[in-house]
Amino acid sequence: MQESLANTRRWLGISLALLALLFILCVWFSIGRIQADLQNRGQEALRIAGLNPDYLSANGCDVSLDGIVASEAEKAQYSSVVGNLEGIRQAGLFNPGNGFFNNLKIKQAVAPVPETVETAVLRDPNLDITIKDGKAIVSCLVSESERFEIIKAAEKLYGAENVVDNCLVADDLKEATWLNGMLGLLPKFNADLEGARLTAIDDSLTISGLAAGDEQRAALAQLADSAVGLNLQNNIRIKEAELIEPNFSFVAGDSLKLTGNLNQPSADLIQKTISTTSSCSAFNNIDNRLQVAENYLAPSWTADVFKEACNATTDSPDFAMNYANKKLTLNGTVDSEAKRLAIADKFAQSTDGVEIINNLKVVEPVVLKEPNFKWQRNNGKLEIFGNVATATSNYADAAATCAVDSANIDNKLVVSDEYKELPWTQKVFDQACASVNESPDFALGYNNGKLTLNGTVESDAVRDGIANKFIAASDGIEVVNLLKVQKAVEIPTPVASSEVDSPATVVPEVTADVAEAVPSVASPEVVLDNPTEVVSTPEVTAPEQNPEVAVATTPTPVEIKLRPPSLRIDVASEQVRLNGDVPTTTEQANAELGFADKNVDNKLRVDSEIANPDYLDTVISLGPELAQELDRVTINLENEKLTILGVAETEEQRKAIGDYVQNRLEPDVTVVNKLTVQSTIPFIEDGK
């Protein structure tokens, strides 16, 4: 029994010890949270009251105020804010005293009163008005009547519900002679300053907040200095301007075009880069339309990308670059995938992480074909046929007009950009015109890199002279001289028919002379690009009995018909989508440049078999223009017909837009106005 009682007592003791330990641990871990919460709440209360929160410190459930204040009233203000905080240890049965300790020291000690004269020492009043989140926080030490005026002025300006009154009143204060002037500043400071604050203490006035610029800051300071009459401390700061991202474009072609919006230093750097980079300074025409404003950011890489853009024109003569929405888009054509990737890589290295959209297209270099032609007089006409470039055709026409009347010119040349322009053609055709005077049946041919001369002349000297002139005119091209010297033929007296045994018996000498003058083998043929087209080169007009003279055939002209362009522009708020087929990358880039302030999905395709009519540039310009009038609009160009889709606000606007587009495009393009007017709710009468 005694042993059982002892065990019970032992377990009871252990349980009590464990409970005591658990209690100690709970108190230990909760003290830290209580202390942090108490300190945060106390400092926030001081901050709201416009007092210094750093003066407060918490230790457990005790709170201390340590620091230097200007007066007893300010010290009392700290006590009124902090002393009644919930959670501070209060005096009670187990607490010998209160846990709030105001250890604040007064900044200036009151001068001792002379023993012989009993004089009351009046303290200086003070006032602090802080504007924060639309509320006026008023802290002051003034007389009761002055407090009334302060709160009345604040409530009039901000509303009673937005005024926090932390004022203290006392009777041993000097008159606040500056009060009316300071209250008069409130409307102006409230309107012009962000986070305005006015503090009058001792003999000084401190003003602070954010001003829009230096002029505003100086004007407010001058106003405060003249209105209050205290020593002014101007702590107003200048609000930093909100800068926006620049946008710009670079489009190369026959000329160089620059557009966009950026700040002046960036524009100066671009101008310097363009003028000092040889691949750009070589442009005869530089159209600089950059717009300058001070509220644009200045990326550190701006000059570098324009230098790379200039360099890119070496490998891509139609290179275009566009920067918008923090993306750099590259357009143009190059002749290899390696160059396409190399150009994009150089921009990536120059732009410090900017997203690069590489829309460069690889277009295999066009190898122009060698032209061929024949220019000859035949039966009083001048025939021209073959395959040549445009300029060569023009020179051939001019030379033909020189040789015969224009009505006798038979020009069957096939003209195409697929053929080379030869640098010496004008001189050669001029010489052909001059050669007709010495060889009436003169013929000029060009094939396989050789010039061939045919016809008859009266002497070897003339034959050689003509050939030498063509050698000089053709800049070293091989000249094959097949000109023949025509000998004079005498016709003998005819014999009687009974004596004729054969044609040779009648004119034996004639046949011999003709045989010598007219070669029995035709001159070499000129083979054109079309294997079925063979052009013979007769030296002289031969009799029908000569079967060896080849008959010339004329080629059938080959014409490549270009298709009309197609272009669809869809605008929906800030999104733009481009589709269709255009002739060059210039139109592809220009269609996007008009929407520099929007997000553009450019899916235009470049096709060399697409025509480039004058109206295409007009259609491209219509996209941005209509987007300014309508939030959502579609223009669709197909087979020389333009359709406008979208919603207009009024019938007048719908008609005005249709008329405007028609005036711009017709009669070249048919305009179909399918704009609709924003529908309204119809009036309902008697439920019908």
Q: Would you kindly provide a written description of the structure presented here, covering whatever features stand out?
A:
This protein is an alpha/beta fold. It folds into 5 domains: about 100 residues, no CATH class; about 110 residues, hypothetical protein tt1634 (3-Layer(aba) Sandwich); about 110 residues, hypothetical protein tt1634, CATH 3.40.1520; about 130 residues, hypothetical protein tt1634 (3-Layer(aba) Sandwich); about 110 residues, hypothetical protein tt1634 (3-Layer(aba) Sandwich), CATH 3.40.1520.20. Helices cover about 35% and strands about 30% of the residues. Strands 6, 7, 8, 9, 10, 11 and 12 form a 7-stranded mixed sheet that branches. Strands 15-14-13-16-17-19 form a 6-stranded mixed sheet, with helices on both faces. Strands 23-22-21-24-25-26 form a 6-stranded mixed sheet, covered by helices on one side. Helix 6 packs parallel to helix 8, helix 10 packs parallel to helix 11 and helix 11 runs antiparallel to helix 12. The longest helix is centred in the first third of the chain and has 47 residues. It is elongated, with a radius of gyration of 50 Å. The C terminus is likely disordered.
What are the SSEs and their pairings?
Layout: H1 2-48, E1 56-59, E2 62-65, E3 68-69, H2 72-82, E4 100-102, E5 105-106, E6 126-132, E7 135-142, H3 144-158, E8 163-165, E9 168-169, H4 179-192, E10 194-201, E11 204-211, H5 214-228, E12 231-238, E13 247-252, E14 256-262, H6 264-276, H7 278-281, E15 286-292, H8 302-312, E16 320-324, E17 327-331, E18 333-334, H9 337-350, E19 355-358, E20 361-362, E21 372-378, E22 381-388, H10 390-403, E23 409-415, H11 425-435, E24 443-447, E25 450-457, H12 460-473, E26 478-485, H13 503-506, H14 508-517, E27 526-527, E28 534-535, E29 566-572, E30 575-582, H15 585-593, E31 599-606, H16 615-629, E32 632-638, E33 641-648, H17 651-665, E34 670-677
Parallel strand pairs: 2-4, 3-5, 7-8, 7-9, 11-12, 14-15, 17-19, 18-20, 22-23, 25-26, 30-31, 33-34
Antiparallel strand pairs: 1-2, 6-7, 6-10, 10-11, 13-14, 13-16, 16-17, 21-22, 21-24, 24-25, 27-28, 29-30, 29-32, 32-33
